[in-house]
Design brief:
heterodimer, A: 199 residues, mainly alpha, Arc Repressor Mutant, subunit A, 2 domains, B: 124 residues, 5 helices, elongated
């Protein structure tokens, strides 16, 4: 926990300063999670704002402060789902724009160490983004929370409200689907990386 | 027999699967490092409070509308109840049978065909 239980209880009683401190403690982590869930840097802050607004209005419903973090993750996942549903079509077109922009930036790069690292990070991001784009939103969010955010099965249980076995099955199936698509996607990415290098 | 003999092809396929699993784990780890948590903008908190206040204002508007609707519905119910009770007072239902009601309304018309008089006529 990044904050004390007393602070959460103060915020539940309507203390705005306590609420501000909770937001300050968690906002960076929530922004990071959202950026990896939705894959659209320009909209991350808007989704995070929505998460904290929902937190503000539902904080009084939280009976046990011990489950605050899984509950905040749940709000984050729900807000990300809502965002992805609303902007599914818009997202596809903008992701391709973003990719083009990144390619242009990479083309402009002239081989310094930092630029090579940037290029490598971009390649990894593109590969994983392509892999996760090939599965459903549910699989993508679940895998991101488990494999990238590093949440435990126990924490996922509290977020999804399902038992451990059901989660294991869902995770296994989601991983299998990604693995199935992996060969093609990594092959394509390696090819595009080589093309970038030639340019 | 659970541990049957694996053909070289199956063994190769199994090895490939393990390699892909390991590659995926490495990819996820690299992805986590390649996507650091972004810094919030300086306007994050002011924008958040502006959002909360805007939501509060719209909630108040909806609340007021809901209250007005409830009041209007209650008033309409009261008026309807009053109208129904007034109309029921003016049309008192008749407690007798249909024939009795008919007789009461048309006594003068039935008078010439009174049974007693017809029997008197027959006797004559």
């Amino acid at each position: 926990m990044l904050v004390e239980f007393e602070l959460i209880q103060s915020a539940q009683r309507g203390d705005a300063a306590a609420f501000n401190r909770i937001v300050s403690a968690y906002r960076r982590r929530i922004l990071g999670t959202i950026s990896r869930l939705i894959g659209r840097p320009e909209d991350v802050e808007d989704v995070a704002q929505e998460v904290f607004i929902r937190l503000y209005y539902s904080l009084e419903q939280l009976r046990t402060p011990e489950v605050f973090e899984p509950w905040l993750y749940r709000l984050t996942v729900n807000a990300s789902y809502d965002y992805l549903r609303k902007s599914r079509r818009r997202q596809e077109s903008r992701m391709s724009d973003l990719s083009e922009q990144q390619v242009m930036m990479a083309d402009a790069a002239a081989g310094s160490r930092a630029q090579i690292e940037d290029h490598e990070r971009r390649r990894v991001r593109d590969t994983v983004a392509d892999l996760l784009a090939s599965v459903s939103e549910e699989d993508r969010i679940l895998l991101t929370l488990k494999e990238v955010e590093g949440l435990s099965l126990k924490e996922l249980e509290q977020i999804y409200h399902v038992n451990e076995n059901a989660l294991k099955v869902r995770l296994f199936r989601a991983r299998q689907r990604v693995l199935k698509n992996m060969k093609g996607v990594t092959g394509n990415t390696a090819q595009s990386a080589q093309t970038d290098e030639v340019k | 027999m659970s541990d049957r003999f694996m053909s070289p092809y199956e063994s190769q396929e199994s090895q490939n699967q393990t390699d892909r699993e390991r590659q995926l784990d490495e990819l996820f780890r690299a992805y986590a490092l390649a996507c650091p948590d972004p810094e919030p903008s300086v306007n994050f908190m002011p924008k958040l409070w502006a959002g909360i206040e805007a939501r509060e204002a719209s909630r108040n508007v909806f609340g007021r509308m809901a209250k007005a609707l409830v009041t209007a519905a209650l008033a309409a119910s009261a008026i309807l109840a009053l109208l129904v009770s007034m109309s029921s007072n003016s049309d008192q239902p008749y407690s007798g049978t249909f024939v009795q009601a008919l007789t009461a309304n048309h006594v003068s018309q039935l008078e010439p065909f009174h049974v007693d008089r017809i029997s008197e006529m027959e006797n004559q």
